[in-house]
């Protein structure tokens, strides 16, 4: 299940990984973004790929940084074969996002082998989430910010066979 055959991300998009963490029941881990409230404050772990970093290594690093769940507590069960992209809305195309029109993501599906007590949202100095829960995969597009919904619809389609029925 190598990502070596995946071409470079589209021009103008920041390379990024997304992680769908499935529990043994087929539910997916979702976190509430720190400092955000409302229905669309939720998302799966995701983050940038460092220069010269392997895509799989970036996925495992981001999962650990954002959830405290280390590589020994997961197994990789799939990944997208192509980059999924979303554009930043105009109000985000300033500041730290001004160099990119959006993000291109390779999504990983991981099976969680640990227990809920292994989740440590404050494991990293930069805390991304202030709450979390297990959720049905098909509900995710309605929980994320609107500009990410098409990507979430695609990952529901790509990884639906892994989800709780």
TrEMBL record:
<comment type="function">
    <text>Accelerates the degradation of transcripts by removing pyrophosphate from the 5'-end of triphosphorylated RNA, leading to a more labile monophosphorylated state that can stimulate subsequent ribonuclease cleavage.</text>
</comment>
<protein>
    <recommendedName>
        <fullName>RNA pyrophosphohydrolase</fullName>
        <ecNumber>3.6.1.-</ecNumber>
    </recommendedName>
</protein>
<dbReference type="GO" id="GO:0008893">
    <property type="term" value="F:guanosine-3',5'-bis(diphosphate) 3'-diphosphatase activity"/>
</dbReference>
<feature type="domain" description="Nudix hydrolase">
    <location>
        <begin position="12"/>
        <end position="157"/>
    </location>
</feature>
<dbReference type="GO" id="GO:0006753">
    <property type="term" value="P:nucleoside phosphate metabolic process"/>
</dbReference>
<dbReference type="InterPro" id="IPR015797">
    <property type="entry name" value="NUDIX_hydrolase-like_dom_sf"/>
</dbReference>
<dbReference type="GO" id="GO:0019693">
    <property type="term" value="P:ribose phosphate metabolic process"/>
</dbReference>
<comment type="similarity">
    <text>Belongs to the Nudix hydrolase family. RppH subfamily.</text>
</comment>
<dbReference type="Pfam" id="PF00293">
    <property type="entry name" value="NUDIX"/>
</dbReference>
<dbReference type="InterPro" id="IPR022927">
    <property type="entry name" value="RppH"/>
</dbReference>
<dbReference type="InterPro" id="IPR020084">
    <property type="entry name" value="NUDIX_hydrolase_CS"/>
</dbReference>
<feature type="short sequence motif" description="Nudix box">
    <location>
        <begin position="47"/>
        <end position="68"/>
    </location>
</feature>
<dbReference type="InterPro" id="IPR000086">
    <property type="entry name" value="NUDIX_hydrolase_dom"/>
</dbReference>
<dbReference type="InterPro" id="IPR020476">
    <property type="entry name" value="Nudix_hydrolase"/>
</dbReference>
<keyword id="KW-0378">Hydrolase</keyword>
<dbReference type="GO" id="GO:0034432">
    <property type="term" value="F:bis(5'-adenosyl)-pentaphosphatase activity"/>
</dbReference>
